[in-house]
Specification:
mainly alpha
Length: 99
């Protein structure tokens, strides 16, 4: 149930030429190649699986890996897009309160 609640599927149709990557993702810059993304996902899955098994989630480890990776990608994207406008000010405010 948790996995289905966290899954987002966007159905898009191509009309003419595709929009530039920065317009589709909100991120400027180089995008890693599919092989680099796949290697990153494999390493991520390996470590999450190890931790899931250590914590006793053997039965649902595969589902946890998929859901955790999806959540990680969403959080990573939000950080890349909104880092300067949202997250840096929040961190600075928290630091100021701590002093």
């Amino acid at each position: 149930m948790f996995k289905s609640a966290c899954t987002l599927e966007l159905k898009t149709e191509k009309i003419g030429s595709a929009a530039p990557l920065a317009m589709r993702t909100g991120i400027k810059g180089r995008v890693p190649s599919p092989s680099a993304r796949n290697a990153h996902k494999k390493n991520f899955a390996k470590e999450v699986t190890k931790e899931a098994i250590k914590l006793g989630f053997n039965i649902v480890a595969d589902d946890l890996v998929e859901v955790t990776y999806d959540a990680f990608k969403v959080i990573e994207h939000c950080l890349k897009v909104h880092e300067g406008q949202v997250f840096v000010p929040i961190v600075n405010e928290l630091k100021a309160e701590g002093n």
